[in-house]
Amino acid sequence: MTVIIPAAGLSERMGENKLLLPLDGKPLIHSTINAVLSYTDDVIVVIGHERERMEEALSGLPVRIVCCDEYLKGQKYSTLAGLREAGDDDFAILPGDLPLVRFEDFQGTEALLSTHEIARAIYRGIPGHPVMFRKEHKEKLLAFDGTLKEYLSLYDTAAYNGSIGTVLDADTPERYQAIITKNFEGLALS
Questions:
Q1: Would you give per-residue pLDDT tens digits along the chain (190 residues)?
Q2: Which residue from 19, 73, 121, 184 lies 20 to 30 Å from 98 (Cα-Cα)?
Q3: Where are the alpha helices (DSSP H) in 144-185?
Q4: Is the peptide bond before 22 cis (omega within 30 degrees of 0)?
Q5: Is residue 33 part of a domain?
Q6: pLDDT tens-digit profile of 33-65?
Q7: 85 belongs to a structural domain
């Protein structure tokens, strides 16, 4: 399984690069990557915004770094840049700002690929990540003009009931604070 981590965006709602904010003494994206590395060693991280800072933050980690020049067009372009670099294997998409995702979230979602072409983690009915695909979807996704959400609507996507880490991204200061303190009480997740 190849895991593609889109990590190229502007972090506009945060106001600064959320992936480089500190979490347990390291950049937040390290927690996401370490969770992925507990599951697979085939990891592609797609960067764009603040490329040099991101390359420095990722230095020494056993991941493939892909630069996306079209990152300003949206996450779809970062995802596709990573997908182009993926081999001929099943693959998953997991945004870089999900530092609380767990090994079990990957394992449980992948188990559903034995009976479905696509599977995703959810939390309390909220669609989350990872989103996993059988390898035959690579070329279909690369050729698809719409969004990932539109693509998923065309298929029967199995849902794995995962942890809060599958939906709790670090998009806003409030969410980042919840991640740091692990206090999720009253936090809006949808």
A1: 999 999 998 787 777 899 999 999 999 999 999 999 999 999 999 999 999 999 999 999 999 999 999 988 888 899 999 999 999 999 999 999 999 999 999 999 999 999 999 999 999 999 999 999 999 999 999 999 999 999 999 999 999 999 999 999 999 999 999 999 999 988 888 7
A2: 73
A3: 148-153, 173-181
A4: no
A5: yes
A6: 999 999 999 999 999 999 999 999 999 999 999
A7: yes
CB 6 within 8 A of CB 96: yes
> 137 - beta bridge partners?
none
Is 59 among the domain residues? yes
- Residue 135 domain flag: yes
> Which residues span the domain enclosing 108?
2-181
Using CA atoms, how far apart are residues 176 and 46, in angstroms rounded to an integer? 21
| Whether 123 contacts 189, CB under 8 Å | yes
The enclosing domain of 103 has a CATH number of 3.90.550.10
Contact by Cβ (8 Å): 94, 3: yes
The SS3 of residue 3 is strand
pTM above 0.85, yes or no: yes
Are 78 and 8 in contact, with CB atoms under 8 Å apart? yes
Torsion sign, CA atoms 99, 42, 109, 104: negative
Looking only at the bridges linking them, the beta strands covering 157-161 and 118-123 are parallel
